[in-house]
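chain below, 316 aa
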Amino acid sequence: MRFFITDDDSAIRLILSQIIEEEDLGEVVEEAEDGCLLEGHILNLKQIDILFIDLLMPIRDGIETIRHIKGEFSGKIIMISQVESKELIGEAFSLGIDYYISKPINRIEVLTVIRKVMERINLERSINVIQTSLNSLLDLNQPKVVKSNNIVDEKRILEVGEYLLAELGIVGESGHKDLIEVLQYLVKYELTHTFEQQFPTLKDIFVQISKKKLGISATQVDINREIKASEQRIRRAITHSLNHFASLGLTDFSNPKFENYASKFFDFTVVHQRIKELQKNKTIHATQTRVNTKKFIQVFFYEVKRLNSEEIFKYR
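prediction:
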């Protein structure tokens, strides 16, 4: 099973992680300190089976977070809190949580709840397998519809893009939306062009997304202004990602995200330079490192396509 733990108390996150790992119940894929960091489709892309979520958190509490991801997240939810309000607990159950665990954490209670949820998940999966088998038998005599390989699930691609931006430390940055718009443009562009021959220029990309955003009534002055603003937002977002990976590399070169993404999206010399700047306690704004926007966008697009094709990112 794959777990995600959300709690503003690092001690609680540590205790739950230790229980899960020591009892060999599965893998704690990721942790978060607030509900504002959760998105339903991102949890699905990470294939989270069980989400632990605290009721009281400083920015977005458990109730609001469940409302936010409801209808998207397909896994099970276990709420943890020291709150004893029957109204709040009742509201949480009405929103779809599976169990409620009271703080302080009791190891036996946690193990009992997790195992019950796991049993439910395994049962549901068994039923789905049986249902799929029955549907296959019923469809044997039905005419087969051949789907075109040119059909692109744009929504799916954009969700993978959101996931990758989260991995790159960019979610929440002002350039996040711009990069998703660039991805959307490139997905549509590829349907009628061959990237092996020529990847569109940055100028063409920014012109097209600016025109789409502003509409046909926009003047050239407005378009130029939007192009410049979009370029700046994206550049800041990429710089933020560089700082994110440099911070990871500064503390641990073997960090999986650092190993997997830093060398793909940035030149080694640029990352190394930023790490040296951090070692000298230079501020983010003082950095002289420059980012390659076109390379970042190209790698972002191809990495999204690669992730989209991998089995781990297929819907269950």
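The domain at 2-120 is CATH 3.40.50.2300 (Rossmann fold). The chain has two domains: 2-120, 154-313.
thats it, cya
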